[in-house]
Amino acid sequence: MKKITLDEFSNLAFLSSPTFSPAGKHFCFVMSHADKHENKYTADIYELKGKKLRRITSGGKERGFQFLDEDTILFPGDREGKKEPTIETKFYQISLSGGEATLAFRFPLPVEKLLPLPDGNFIVAATTFPGWEDLYKADPKRTAAYLKEMKENEDYEVVDQVPWWWNGGGVTKSAYTALYYFDAKKKKAAMLTEKNFAVSDVKLSPDKSTVWFFGSECKPLLSMEEGIGLYKMALADKKITCVAENNAHFSVQGFECAESFLLLMASDRSHGLNTDADFYKLSYEDEKITLYKTYGEAIGSSVGSDVRYGGGRSLKVIGDTVYFISTIFDSADLYKLEDGEITKVTDVEGSVDSFDVAGDKLRLIALWNMKAQEIYDEKGTQYTRVNEKALAGKYIASPEKLNFVTDGHEVHGFVLKPIDYEEGKKYPVVFDIHGGPKTVYGPVFYHEMQYWTSLGYFVIYCNPTGSDGRNAFADIRGKYGTVDYEDLMAFCDEALKAYPDMDEKNVFETGGSYGGFMTNWIIGHTDRFAACASQRSISNWFSFYGVSDIGVEFAKDQNAADPWGDPEKLWWHSPLRYADKVKTPTLFIHSFEDYRCPIDQGYQMYTALIAHGVESKMVLFKGENHELSRSGKPLHRIRRLDEITKWFENHKR
Description:
The protein is α+β, with helices and mostly antiparallel strands. About 15% of the residues lie in helices and about 35% in strands. The longest helix is centred in the last third of the chain and has 16 residues, at about 485-500.
C-alpha cells in the first residue's frame, strides 16, 4: 500500500457549516482546501442535492454564510479587490436558482453576527471601538480619522482590560461587541446597547420578537465569567433587561431559543472550569429557571484531529426538541433531548463534528470509519466522497483499543501498527499526548499519527485523568503532574507489554498545549524516552499567570493555587522546577503569536535545559498561534511535522 505523506493533509477537503434552508429545500456547506503554493486556505460554498455536489461560489474566501430566504444565500466577502484599509463588512447575496453573487449591502463595522428580521432588516452584532462608538454612522471623514489614528499608533498598545489579547486575534485594543439595528433599505444603523457594554452569543426568539444575548460591562476581568449576565431585548420597544446573572454557583454556559421556553446549558461549577452543564428551562412568561434534565456531560465534540478547518453547529432546537453533539468516553455522537428524555441519534465510533436538521432531514459532518470528513445522515449513509480519492490505496492504520484499570479507574487508549507490520520485528514508537487536558483522543483519522505509521512507527495515545467525556474524570484541579502522569506512564507500560514488537529503547514522546506541559513534566521525571518534542507548552505557572488569553482564572483554577495564596504549590506543579533533572534530548515548538500558551513558556524550558547541558533545539514560527498544528499555514504545518519527525529519526538508539 502507498504511504501517507508529510503533506497529505493538503490533499484533503475540510468540511464545515452544514446548513439547511429554512424549509429544508436546500442544503449547503463550506468546503476548504490547503493551498501549498499560496501558503493559505481556500473556502467556497457548495450545495448538496441528494449525493450530487454543486459549487455555489468560487472566490475562495467564502468561509461563512446563512440563508436569507429559502433560495438566497447571504455571505460576507470582498469581491471588489480594493486594497485601501477598511473596517467595513461587505455582504453579498446569491440565488441558488442561478446567477452571480451581487453586493447586498455594507455595514460600517466588522460584523460578528447578522440576524435577519421578517421585515428585511437586521440585528447586527459588530465590533465597536472605545472612543469611536459613532463609527456605525458611516461618516467617511470619521472613519478616515479612526484609520489615521490607528496608523499613527500602530507601534503602541494601550492596555486597560484583562485579558488584552486573543489567540489568533491579537491585541484587542479594548474593542468590544455591541448590538445594532440595521435598516437595509435606508442603509442606516442604530446602536441598541450602551457604550462599554459587551455582548456575545446573540440569538433571536422563534417569533423574531426578542433578542437574547450574554452581556457584561467592559472592565478588567480576572474571572472570564465575572459580571456576565443573560439579557433580552424586546424589539417592540428596544428595552433591555437582565434575566439571569452568573455567579460562583450557577454559570450559564450557553442557551438556545426553544418554542415554549429558553433552553439553558448551565452548571454549578462544582468541578471548577471543567464542570459540564445540565439542561435548564427559563420560562418566557415569568423568567423562572427550573432544572429540565440533569446531564453533566460534555456538549460538542472534544475528539481531537488535525484534519478539520472551520466549525459548525453543535446544538439546535426544533420546536422544543433539542439536538446536540456530546462527547461520551472516546466518541462524539448526536443526541436528542425531548420531553425530558435523552436518546442517542447516531451510534458510530468517531466524531460528529457539526450538523443541521430541518423537518425529517438531518445531515452531519463526521470523522467516521477512519476516513477524513464526509457528510452523512443519522443512519450512517454517506452522501459525499470528497476525500476518498486522496486516500485511496493509502495505508491507514486502524486503532486497536488498549483499555486498562489503574489505581481504581479505567484509562482508555489506542495503538496504531506500522505499515507492513511483521511479527517478531522491532519497531520504534511515538507516544502522542493530547491537549486540553479536557479533550479526548478517539478512533478518528489523525494525519500526523498516520504519517508516523507510514514511516514504520507504532503510535500510541490515550485519555488520562483530566480528559473529557467522563464527567468528574475531567476534574484535575490541583493534580497536574500526579495522577495524569501516572496514567500516562502506566499506559506506556501496558502498551509495551501488550505489543512486544515495540522497541522499548526507541520510544519517543510528543504533545501540544496540555500535552506540551506534560512533555515538559515527563522529561523532568523520567529518562525513559529516547527523545521528546514539546509543543506550545506551559513550563512555569508563575510566569503563565496573567498572560494567557483564557484568563487569570485558568491557572488558579487548574492548580488550586496562585502566586500569593500558595506559591509553593504553584511552583511544585511547574515543570521548570525539575529542569535540573532532565536528561532527555528535547525539541521545543512554539509560535510567536500564541497567546494561549505564550512563547516565553518555551523559551524558559529550552534555556533551562541548555543551562544543564541537555541537548535541545527550539523551532519558532512567525505569524502562527496556538493552532499551528491544526490550522496553521500549510507550509508551516509541513515544517512543524518534519522537524518533530527528524528529531525522532536522529535520536534513534
